[in-house]
Write a structure and sequence with these properties.
142 residues, alpha/beta, five-stranded mixed beta sheet, 5 helices, 37% helix
Length: 142
């Protein structure tokens, strides 16, 4: 949100974003956290937080620890990401936790490896002068 927009609105945060991960059944690479991704190939949709921020930040940590970088296989959509995991072109797919749960529920050859709390919060921008509406939304969330 831009500084000019922040002068006009108050942000009512409703939830924190959590990422999930999808791997082949049995988790053959034993991936249990972001720290296990050094030297692995992740599939992530182009332009997503996973591709543009999460993987580069974790790669930096890998390199600082003298471990191999994470390879990011950019895909256009979730179907391509899952096909990459199933074909062995990617070791893991990172996406929202809700999407990860749905993918695993739909395909018995997949399982979830781990979740990651992201530094992203979703919510609603409300005009600052609309205190009644802002309070009603806040009360509803609580």
């Amino acid at each position: 949100m831009t500084p000019a927009r922040l002068e006009q609105v108050a942000f009512v945060s409703s939830y924190q974003v959590i990422d999930g991960s999808v791997v082949p059944k049995g988790n053959p690479k034993n991936l249990k956290s972001l720290d296990d991704l050094c030297g692995m190939t992740i599939s992530a949709a182009a332009g997503t937080f996973e591709a543009t921020t999460l993987a580069p930040e974790q790669t930096k940590k890998c390199l600082e620890a003298k471990k191999p970088a994470i390879d990011v296989l950019l895909v256009q959509n979730t179907d391509n990401a899952i096909m990459a995991v199933q074909a062995g072109r990617a070791d893991i797919h990172l996406t929202s936790a809700a999407v990860a749960r749905g993918l695993v529920a739909a395909d018995p050859k997949l399982e979830r490896a781990f979740d990651v709390d992201l530094p992203i919060r979703n919510g609603y921008p409300i005009a600052k002068d609309k205190t009644e509406l802002r309070n009603a939304i806040t009360d509803g969330i609580k």
